[in-house]
Amino acid sequence: MELLAFGKTGWGDELFYATLMTIAVSVTAMLIGFFFALIFTPLKLSKNKFLNLIGNFYTTVIRGVPELLVIYLFFFGGSGAIMFVASMFGYFEYIEINAFITGAFAIGIISGAYSTEVFRGAIQSIDKGQFEASKVLGIKKHIQFYKVILPQMLRLAIPNLSNVWQITLKDTSLISVTGLVEIMRQSYIAAGSTRDPLFFYSFAAVLYLLVTYFSMKLINKLELKYSRGY
Amino acid sequence: MDFELMINSLPKLLNATVITLKLLSASLFFGLFIGLLFAVLRMNKNTIINKFAYGYSYVFRGTPLLVQIFIIYYGLGQIEYLRSTILWVILKEPYWCAIIAFALNTGAYTSEILRSAFQTIKPGMIEAGKSLGISSKIIFYKIQIPIAIRQSLPAYGNEIILMLKGTSLASTVTLMDLTGVAKYIISTTFKPIEVFIVAGGIYLFMTFLVHNTIKYLERKFSY
């Protein structure tokens, strides 16, 4: 227990902040993922073959390639790509991007591919009559989406989105390889300096379980809220 | 685009793919047994056994695979007692540590897949078997298992693909699998995009093969 003391003698406060960092990265990545899903879900549902191909390419490639490989691409390629753009504007200094942004972006792209699939499935399982009925009632297209389709879609999507959240949360452990101090990285540092890896990695596992447990409770509440009337 | 690098790195990456495939097949093999065992335990009427099996799958599905590998590879070596037993021969090898972690992880997911497959079997099938005077052991092997396999094929196919991607974590415990070699080439040449395309292409090809094999099997076993 001494090892977990707060303050200078233990690793309690460090691990606490690392847990907050894990939550922050996961939430950011999830939101970036939603942004990608917002772009790619319409592409996947589009009748245009070319747009369809782009949508399928994104979800197939990202879901078929290991997360770690995607993270390495961003970690090693991220600053290179930005420096290339900067060099076109005559800036040749070395640019280092923040590990948080690189990590959240890499995980966000992965999370987005899963979210896209969830949204696509949810929209496709909404009864065709709902679209037709709102059309007959003369509801405008964007109001139809926000007031008719979206509420029904969320109800169907939330259980699957909670899976995506769990995947995203666990994937953030992989950005420890880029040096961002989240649960995994902090445990690695603590394990190295105390020579007690068994304790710290087991404790990391407990922290992940706690985050999962409490976030699932929150999601269940959301699920109840959106399934009112069913 | 450095096409020369892409062509030069292809043989090295293909060589590393062999290790990835070895890790994958060994983990799936042991994972299937672990999964079947825990699926059976989950359906046991004894609450303690039941809770134990549930706890196993909850812990292994709720924590990142990276933590599990690190606990087994770095953590278990810390226990003095283990170092003196015969188990140490296995546990000091990163290769076997990775396989143990992968097998335990995929075992947890497989147990969930098999459990839900067993639960979807209509009670009428088992009752029919019983009324024909077939022993419950044979009902399990000849009726429940074949139906469960058919039911769980699509989900198990996804699990194989997840595990294929999971083997990339072996590179974090010094194994030179496909991702490990890819990272090495990237860090020596600083050409991440080229290497990503080749290594990612190999992974995608394997995913494609798994996907189509499962689809073929689904059609073959459909009734």
Spatial separation of the terminal alpha carbons of chain B: 50 Å
Please tell me the CATH architecture of chain A by its name.
Orthogonal Bundle
What is the helix content of chain A? over 70%
Helix-strand category of chain B: mainly alpha
Give the name of the CATH superfamily of chain A: MetI-like
Main beta sheet of chain B = none
Primary descriptors:
heterodimer, A: mainly alpha, B: 223 residues, mainly alpha, MetI-like fold, flat
Describe the structure concisely for a colleague.
The complex is a heterodimer of chains A (230) and B (223). Chain A is built from eight helices and no strands.
Topology:
The complex is a heterodimer of chains A (230) and B (223).
Chain A: H1 12-45, H2 49-64, H3 67-88, H4 99-124, H5 128-136, H6 141-171, H7 183-194, H8 197-226
Chain B: H1 3-42, H2 47-62, H3 65-75, H4 80-84, H5 88-91, H6 94-119, H7 123-131, H8 136-166, H9 178-189, H10 192-221
Helix pairs in contact in B: 1-2, 1-6, 1-9, 1-10, 2-6, 3-6, 6-8, 7-8, 8-10, 9-10
What can you tell me about this protein's structure?
- The complex is a heterodimer of chains A (230) and B (223).
- Helix content of chain A is 78%, strand content 0%.
- Chain A is mainly alpha-helical.
- Chain A has one domain (21-182): MetI-like (MetI-like fold), CATH 1.10.3720.
- Chain B has ten helices and no strands.
- The relative contact order of chain B is 0.16.
- Classes of the chains: A mainly alpha (230), B mainly alpha (223).
- At the A-B interface, α2, α3, α6, α7 and α8 of A face α2, α3, α8, α9 and α10 of B.
- Chain A: Keywords: Cell inner membrane, Cell membrane, Membrane, Transmembrane, Transmembrane helix, Transport.
- Chain A: One of its GO terms (molecular function) is transmembrane transporter activity.
- Chain A: This is ABC transmembrane type-1 domain-containing protein.
